[in-house]
Amino acid sequence: MNKYYPAALAILIILLAAFPAIGPEVYYLSFMFSVFMYVILASSWNFIGGYAGYLSFGHAAFFGIGAFATAKMATVFQLPPLLTMLASIPAGGIAALIALIVGYPCLKIRGPYFSVVTLCFAFVVDLAVKNIEYLGGAEGLWMKFMDLPEKTARTIMYEAMLLLMVITLAASWFLGRSRFGTGLTAIRSDEEVAETMAVPTAMLKIKAFVLSAFFPGVAGGLFAYYLGYIHADAVFSINISILIVLMAMFGGGGTWLGPIIGAVILTVVNEGLSTFAQAEIARIIYGGLFIVVTIFMPNGIIDFFRKRGG
After folding, report:
1. 261 assigned to some structural domain
2. What's the domain range around 80?
3. Does some domain include residue 141?
4. What is the pLDDT of residues 61-112, one digit of tens each?
5. Which one, of 303, 292, 254, 245, lies nearest residue 42 by Cα?
6. Could you say which of 95, 246, 252, 282 is the most buried, measured as most Cβ atoms within 10 Å of its Cβ?
7. Nearest to 12 by CA among 270, 293, 257
């Protein structure tokens, strides 16, 4: 059945691209925009967290870096709408460059130590942005949105995030079927054995970490422009990092389809909790879900139901 997944997803993407043509309310465009964004975040995190087995809890930092880099370029250079959207690409490059600098020493440690270091990195970036006035400080950054009817503008952003999701999923699909992906899987299984078999583990980990930071950086740039105003609390929240990890693990880390399923299901859950539950209750539920997934579905919902069906 796996060979039919790409074809089915291609048909679904065509339908999603045509969705605005039926005239949905702006709320549904915004909700689908969020779904696409979280699919991107979960699938890109999967490069390092799923395939390589290095659980990063700081990926919200790269998302936020992309957001603030885009906002800063837009305000400093007074970019028009199209160029502001395109500025998210070099913003993703900035996130990837920072991942290269941070990843070189961090990827030398493993297990929970790596997770703690990446979590601390996210906190450090958050504090730096809040305390450096040039980067936005406590006030945040404003951007001028498109001078178009709201529905038209939201549709353009919807299609842009959908396109980025398609590119991210294509990269994930090719990675999973490449020697690069095979090497990362070997690292996840047993890094010491992989090293004895001449697998360049250090280089592969750095490449995966940099790639996993680039796509969230671009998504952060589009998200910032979509909001028109960006603040550190909106993009560096620990909840985003936890959601990214939970989505990928819930669906099935180390697989192509798992993060997609996890992101879609948990985005719906997140939307419901945001609407009907207090923030404190939502955090408790997220924590409970994380425990359930870790104990009962360590390989994700796909593997869980495959074993039940078998």
Report:
1. no
2. 20-236
3. yes
4. 999 999 999 999 999 999 998 899 999 999 999 999 999 999 999 999 988 8
5. 245
6. 95
7. 257
